[in-house]
Design goal:
Blueprint (H helix, E strand, L loop, with lengths): L2 H28 L4 H20 L1 H9 L1 H34 L15 H11 L5 E6 L7 H14 L4 E6 L5 H6 L8
Parallel strand pairs: 1-2
Length: 186
């Protein structure tokens, strides 16, 4: 093999590796299958194809050599470990509420309810009929997500006896009027 082909194969594998790092980083940050991700994936494939084209002997050695066997074992163990952690995380996330698990890991304990609130919600849980809470937020209000999270916490501690609905007074003015909602306050 000529030195020219070897240097071209080194450039090709370097481009593929660099593109793989950038594409993986982009995916972890953006989580979008858009043009940037597609171009990065294309560069990886083209770089690998050029590497095989310019230096097929080295490519064969990498795939079939002793280092490849041990390296593939390490990769498989790593993938199995990551998959195990992902499955455990998914199961805990999906079943935490069923198991009665609640953790507030925020620095200032922002998601922790006061004991008085928890006591009130436990009293709601003892009622025969569910309590309905209505929140009025327009779709562009940045606090809507936080309010929904808070209402989910309330629902959890009320053992499902608190039912909530978020009403957009701009999209549903009749429901807002029936509830006595006045824009800007009640």
């Amino acid at each position: 093999m000529s030195n020219n082909n070897r240097s071209l194969s080194n450039i090709a594998i370097s481009v593929a590796g660099f593109a793989a790092l950038l594409t993986a980083g982009y995916w972890f940050v953006q989580r979008e299958f858009n043009l940037y991700f597609q171009v990065g994936t294309g560069l990886i494939l083209i770089g690998l194809a050029l590497f095989v084209y310019f230096d097929p002997d080295r490519a064969r050695q990498i795939v079939a050599g002793r280092q490849a066997r041990y390296g593939s074992n390490a990769v498989l163990l790593f993938v199995a470990f990551v998959a195990s952690v992902a499955v455990i995380n998914y199961l805990v996330y999906q079943n935490a509420q069923t198991w009665g698990l609640r953790w507030d890991l925020t620095a200032d304990q922002e998601r922790t309810l006061t004991p008085e609130t928890v006591l009130t919600l436990e009293e709601i849980a003892a009622l025969d009929e569910p309590v309905v809470a209505r929140a009025f937020y327009s779709g562009d209000n940045p606090n809507q997500t936080r309010v929904k999270e808070l209402l989910e916490d309330y629902k959890f501690y009320a053992k499902g006896k608190l039912v909530y609905e978020i009403i957009d007074p701009l999209l549903n003015p009749i429901a807002a009027e029936q509830a006595g909602f006045i824009a800007g306050g009640m």
